[in-house]
Write a structure and sequence with these properties.
Elements lengths: L3 H9 L10 H5 L5 H30 L7 H41 L4 H15 L5 H28 L3
Helix pairs in contact: 3-4, 4-5, 5-6
């Protein structure tokens, strides 16, 4: 049997729960707007660059001709990967930046943290990203953005509820 002092120490310190210095910190379990901005922009750029590099690799492989030397083949693959990776990465980074800014703005405006903020931020991000292409494209992109974010948030909540971590 464990001594009494050990049991009280376990109640004070639980290694499976985060510790907070102030009570207000424990109530708001979210990243700050600056951390959100950095996180979504970085994740968007990294994911976009990786996907773009993979697509560029495929297009570089398709552009290889039979008369190419090994150095030229490698050059085609690297150029395709680098060029497409940069393009897609920058686009996804900008989308992440706009989403984080809109979500933080929604949270500050509504003073609530719920799924509506995320979905409206997805709608706004899609619409803003395609605004220069015309109102119809902006509406379609906004709808797609809202649906994607809604599915992602619902999936995250389902994982939290049904998958033990």
């Amino acid at each position: 049997m464990a001594p009494e002092g050990n049991d009280s120490a376990r109640r004070l310190y639980n290694p499976y729960q985060p510790e907070y210095l102030f009570q207000e910190e424990s109530l708001a379990q979210r990243r700050s707007w600056g951390e959100n901005l950095t996180y979504y922009t970085g994740v968007g750029y990294l994911a976009g660059s990786s996907a773009g590099a993979a697509g560029g690799f495929v297009s570089g492989m398709k552009s290889i001709e039979q008369t190419d030397t090994v150095k030229l083949k490698i050059n085609r693959i690297l150029n395709g990967s680098g060029h497409t990776g940069r393009q897609v990465g920058n686009r996804c980074g900008v989308i992440g930046l706009m989403y984080a800014a809109l979500e933080s703005g929604m949270m500050a405006t509504r003073d609530k943290d719920d799924i509506i903020n995320s979905v409206v931020a997805g709608l706004g991000t899609g619409a803003l990203y395609k605004a220069a292409a015309g109102p119809r494209s902006a509406a379609v992109a906004g709808a797609i953005g809202g649906v994607i974010v809604g599915v992602a948030v619902a999936g995250k909540q389902a994982l939290r509820r049904y998958v033990p971590i």
